[in-house]
Amino acid sequence: MNSALMLSGNLVQDHEFIYPYYRLLEAKFIVDVCLLGGKEVEGILKTRIPPNKEQKVISPNDVDINKYNLLILPGGAKAMEYLRQDKKILEIILNFYNKKTLIGCICHGTQLLISAGLVSGKKMSGYYSIKDDVNNAGGTYIDAPFVEDGGIITSPHYKYLGDWMKAILSKFDD
Fold this sequence. Notes:
Elements: E1 3-8, H1 14-26, E2 30-35, E3 41-42, E4 48-49, E5 57-58, E6 70-73, H2 77-83, H3 87-98, E7 102-106, H4 110-115, E8 123-124, H5 131-136, E9 140-141, E10 147-149, E11 152-155, H6 161-170
Parallel strand pairs: 1-2, 1-6, 2-5, 6-7, 7-11, 8-9
Antiparallel strand pairs: 3-4, 10-11
């Protein structure tokens, strides 16, 4: 059984959380939600995150990376301001990467990869305004619906959610 961890926080970009969340459930993944603070938050558009009232939320201190074969990092510029300053969040991301667990990251979520030190030498996408950040961190910014490099699949914008999730889920096809 496939299982995913969605990692985010307050003011996440609603589309970038909700679409992958339900798409993963549709693909029969077990989906856990880890939010900074360990409780329900609001998206930037005021959507309750997680959208499912029955969904349990765990805190970063309760994450067991061995339970998952996918990490999803939704974007949202405001959310990233807080998430990328949290050492535990960055440690979780780095541990998933070191374990060679697939990471899917969209929009400003790429800032978490920058702060975790995972961009150097890789081709990546992310929101257009962070192109210089990706390049300055030693990566190569690519403007494409999704970019795959080194176990990380990135996308620049929620208009590419379908392409991005299709690329991610193709890694789990039987």
